[in-house]
Design brief:
Blueprint lengths: L12 H26 L19 H32 L7 H21 L8 H73 L5 H16 L3 E7 L5 E7 L9 E3 L3 H8 L4 E3 L4 H5 L10 E15 L2 E15 L8 H81 L5 H30 L9 E4 H19 L2 E6 L6 E4 L1 H18 L4 E6 L27
Parallel strand pairs: 8-10
Antiparallel strand pairs: 1-2, 1-6, 2-3, 4-5, 5-6, 7-9
Helix pairs in contact: 2-3, 3-4, 4-5, 4-8, 5-8, 8-9, 9-10, 9-11, 10-11
Amino acid sequence: MLWPRFRCPSTSHSSLIAMRRLLLLVLAAAPAAAAGGEMGYTHCACDGEGGGGGFWSLDNIFKWQKVSDLLIAAAYFSIPLELLYFVAGLRHLLPFRWVLVQFGAFIVLCGLTHLLAAFTYEPHPFMVVLLLTAAKFLTALVSFLTAITLLTLIPQLLRVKVRESLLWIKARELDREVVLMKRQEEASWHVRMLTQEIRRSLDRHTVLYTTLIELSRVLALNNCAVWMPSEDKSGMCLTHELRRGSDGEAVVSADDKDVLEVKSSDGVKLLPPESVLGSASGGGKEGTGTVAAIRMPMLKVADFKGGTPEVIQTSYAVLVLVPPSDRNWAPHELEIVEVVADQVAVALSHASLLEESQAMRDRLAEQNRELLQARRDALMANEARDAFQRVMSQGMRRPIHSILGLVSVVQEEGLTPEQKLVIDTMARTATVVSTLIKDVMEMSAVNQERFPLETRPFHLQSMIRDAACVARCLCDFRGFGFAVHIENALPDLVIGDERRIFHVLLHMVGNLIGRIDAGNVTFRVRADDETMEDQRWDPWRPSYSVLAEAKR
């Protein structure tokens, strides 16, 4: 026996009503069928020969049931294909695909039971009954699992519905925020445009008139006016106006209530049209709306201190905006007015700064020209000094080299000990002079005040004898008496800079006889008992301080 099955094609309200009516019809037919047995219709006459005549004969009923089962099976088999096509197209977006798979299996099994039932209205083998029983069992199992799945799925769907409602609320809030952001972006665009127009000029009058024109165009105003304090600070004078209202000079007292409120407020102050500032700034037009007024700091730039100008706030100007009578000020429009007022104050301060910066630039240009001239003079002096040093080096080194060559030739001749001492002294003195010339050239070239010592082993006693010989010659030339005392304990082979030590000795003697007119000079050399730990090496300097013993 086949049980009637119903399938709801959609979840709309009308479909639910139709489904409820069909269910009530089935429930109402069940008692009628039960009552038919009591009224005498206990058999369906399935075993009769004709089953009755007419349209409602048993054969016709079986045919209609068979056709109905085939159509139901065809419909059940087509619905899973449509669901499969739908799921394949939205496999990345559709949630709960496994639920659709269960529904598809349930529908396919229902269609299979109807298809097998279509073969039971005629004589059929036992295999058909067995297959029909298996199909019904699988259908019952899958339908039961699907019902359990729906019990867990419905709360999730309800939560999804709640989330959808929350998302709709959030979307509406985001729409409002987007509208506000667009208004802010529009206000920012107007501010940038006005700022660019204002900063195109550094003339005060051009800046103010550009501000009035652009504000009137952007905000659709009847008139714009700028009031500045008078020289004695007792009143506010109408100095700039977009549309001239009267030929006379408009002056408002600085002690007026509206003027004091505007100057004491940091933001935009809304004034009634009949106020003193509103009526005087109307431009001669009737029917004006609420007037917006804002103060503008008049910045004065003092002298430069440490590279930064000192800004002193002296007074305020007042910017008055007169809209039409049907206009109400929006918050973003007031924000535009505040930002533009700040930009105008900055532009006016830049215009004031331009004059001082131009004067400072002229002075710096003059100083730069003087520095360039001084640099050129210094370069010319350095070139002249270098040329002089080259000439002096060539002019002084050549004679010294000639003397050294001549002395070296004489040293090869057979000389007496006295002559050899004099010739060696001359050679050593020429070497010292050559070293001094070299030091002077290097000191002038690299601008250094210290020279490294060229230490090597040398004979100290021989060098001292040569120095004493030169010192004797100098003393004899100046008329000084000269005596030499050299200790026997003086070492002979030592390590040091022989040429610079010889130079120091000559410098000591020359400095001594240069400061006195007559007397005796004693050249005394002795060995010091200073230990090696107490000795220290000092770098060579061009000036010396030498200890010596002199006797007058």
